[in-house]
Amino acid sequence: MKAKKQAKKTYKKGSAYVCNLCGLEVTIKNPCDCGECAIACCGQVMKPKKK
Q1: CA–CA separation, 4 and 2 (whole Å)
Q2: DSSP readout, 23-36?
Q3: Residue 33 falls within a domain, yes or no?
Q4: pLDDT at residue 31 greater than cutoff 90
């Protein structure tokens, strides 16, 4: 049985993320290309900020 490929999370310069619990907002200034990134706050991965 083949393992499913895990999608790489990529962050783009200028994109914004928000914590759904405390409201912290983060804007990406210099994205990395390591492929294993996750921006987290309050123990959860942050979600893209809705415009």
Answers
A1: 6
A2: --EEE-SS----S-
A3: yes
A4: no
